[in-house]
Amino acid sequence: MTPHGADPRLGQLEAVRQRRQQEAMRALQQRRAQVLAGLQQAEAAQQAVQAALAERAAFIERLRQGASQGGVSVSGLLDAQGWQSAFDARIARANANLAAVLDDVAQRRAAFDEARRALLRAQARLDGARELALRERRALRAGAGRREDEAIDEAAARSWHAAHAARHA
């Protein structure tokens, strides 16, 4: 018991729960930063896919313009086929990278959601510890008030008995 009569374990419990809530908050903030970084990576990967597709479209457009202006030789078609394969491979790599980044973002979001749930649990436990400590403080104050009332009643009774005894003596 503390000098005020409160159980010191309640203060310790509240301190531990506060520390765990703060740790959970830091973990949540870290997970949030990881999700945001993953989203930036996904945006960059998406832009790489779009750039590869745009390059391929521009190449095809140049081929069409060349064909409409003067025709295309067999060697030109073979070169175009090689370039087309290279563009397709680049697009496939960009898409594979995008898929991997999106999978990573999904995992980061799941970790973020778990951290959010952990924070909610830690906050609920902290609130419970605070409520328990508050109830005990209220009970101690109510008990102290009752003891004061009892002391006042006892003093009044003694005073009355003393006055009554003095009158009859």
Automatic annotation (TrEMBL):
It comes from the Bacteria. InterPro entries: Flag_assembly_chemotaxis_eff. This is HrpD protein.
